[in-house]
Predict the 3D structure of the following.
Amino acid sequence: MYSIYLKKLIATVAVLVSVAQLCAQDKIPANADYKNSKIPVEQRVIDLIGRMTVEEKVGQLTTLLGWKMYIKTGNKVQASDALKDAITTQKIGALWGVLRADPWTQKTLSNGLNPSLAAQATNAIQKVAVEESRLGIPLFLAEEAMHGHMAIGTTEFPAAIAQASTFNPSMNEKMGVAVAQELRAQGAHIGYGPILDLAREPRWSRVEETFGEDPYLISEMGLGLIKGFQGNGITNPENVISTLKHFAAYGVSEGGHNGGAVHIGERELMQDYMYPFKKAIDAGVLSVMTAYSSVDGIPSSSHKALLTGLLREQWGFKGFVVSDLGSIEGIKNDHHAAATLEDAAALAMNAGVDADLGGNGFDDALLNAFHAGDVTEARLDEAVAYVLRLKFEMGLFENPYVDEKKPAKVVRNAAHIALAKEMALEGITLLKNEGDLLPLSKELKKIAVIGPNADMMYNQLGDYTAPQDPEFIITPLEGIKAKMPDAEITYVKGTAIRDTTQTDIAAAVSAAKNAEVAIVVLGGSSARDFKTEYLETGAATISSKEDEILSDMESGEGYDRATLDLMGKQLELLQAVEATGTPTILVLITGRPLLINWPAKHIPAILDTWYPGSQGGDALADVLFGDYNPAGRLPVSIPKSVGQTPVYYNHWWPNRRDYVEETSAPLYAFGHGLSYTAFDYSDLKISQSGTDADKFVEVSVTVKNTGAQAGDEVVQLYLRDLVSSVVTPVKQLRGFERIHLAKGESKTLTFTLTPEELALYDTEMKCVAEAGAFEVQLGASSQDIRLTDSFKLAEDILLTTQTK
């Protein structure tokens, strides 16, 4: 048996070497099919793959770290020797983060690239790839782009959790268009985002990168960003490929540990966690990234049932799957599910991973696995085809370069900055407004602005943020000063987020006593600094290098928490200010839900901005002083204690019992958010039409602004399956719309429910909308339900079956 295998192996290797030698000598003719843009893409792909050596195929699936691939000298940029070596020896097909700047990459405002130099750099890099390689294949350049391109001089939008607070997918689409334009102008082709993970574990460090806890909201916000990125097709030179993150169920790891094991059943995985991904695949997203975690004992980067059985075979995904940075090696090093790196590479490739982010997962390990017979050439060709197909469709073979003058006109232009402010405005959430303290009078003469997040620009930008020019970042203090130029504004930091040695509560108390109102800005931070240590994946470690002063960072990748309290002496600062008797407003700038039980009881007005981005200060000032009526809604529930968690609203039956110490209800529920005006709901009507998969249930409701001023209302539709063959959520968001109403104005909204919105996975894992009664709930939050009614589905409607 062994001798037969050995003979086959030797024969295979001999053939491969012979083919490789022939190909290496092959001078590619100028009229090769793959070079002809008039020939169908599929024919070009087949022709090019037929000319490639095994090494070139493996190289095409390799994505290296990009910031090492250029050398900047003054105002000139050229390709580095590292790039030339990677093109020559590894025959790479892509780079990640060429334009990235942050403490991990050690790229700063001085040694990093502004947008114009970025275009110069990507052109220099593509020139090497196209002109100094045998086949002349252009590189894919991928960049982080969840809340703006993570590069110097770009537009900083609110973080994803703040985007979700807008409950406005069209806003995400607009942002996606802007970010895509900035990416393409600088020479990038792939934007990493959206993140479709469900954030049901608030201790997890990456809550800020998600759209919250609800599958439906996540899918709608994600679809907005995908549409903005990809538009009507990537043939458009202003569109980019969208990469979904993270496949699958990454956000609910055991104990909130980033990348830890995930323990969920198949039904919950499909009904909840896969819901947003399925919507995105149906919408034509072109790339999917695996997760660091394992699902039911199988690492996500080697999960064939999900990556091939579900994603490819059942859902029909046509794009390419990329590993998260280092996750292929993690099959061996983290999960201990492979004995060697070669085994890990083979497991990932055979499971359905097409491209390796980082370059250490495939490369030599995949080549060795191939030569050992553990990976077939057919599978290798398949993966290469998924990547090359998109390069052809994007037109990179014909147009690998960009206009170096264009970024100055496109990147961080006035329209994009205005959009960043509009999104920040729509995301600000009024949690409490006792006695109508807000909005504040513009006649105020003395204002105290206090707290660690009042004037720390990076604390409001979130993780995955590049160094930025302070001129373009408006802090709360700056926004308030601009709004109230004639008022006496006293600023006192008071304390830091985590460090307790930078505390001067007495000064804060003095400022509050001498003011008519105190605005206290607290929360958290994902601001990295150049002292922080980083893992190979880019995640931060918790400790700095024995610094005497702790950084503010308590959120962001790698910063999982055991508690959710306001850290350091922040609560002590707030309590001291409130004790002065001066009317006090709490503003939260944070990346995850924090415990605010004491403020909710004692502080009359609370605003949550999450990480509001570059224009957050101006947006906050507009809300504080009544130039904008807030209508943000919570995309995650705010718990009363860590012991309560998970506390997401759409848990499965039965109803939760109270604890000995407290109720089971959250402090503030999903969908909560107040306004400076009031709205009345009336005239709920339900009708049905069509049959089977074309069945439609229409729900209409009239909403009227009964308050004293114009404002937005976020109308939310929840659905409850009253009796089902398997356990289902107590309620589930299945529609929402943000509308603007003038004083006294009313509007009738119509929501359309399809069988997909009614469906569950039954005992046989068939996706079916079951016959029976459904309750419809209309209201302003998951707990503030104004109207209810019900309807009956006459018969089962089978949608699909689960592929094993």
Observations:
- The chain has three domains: 2-409, 428-636, 679-801.
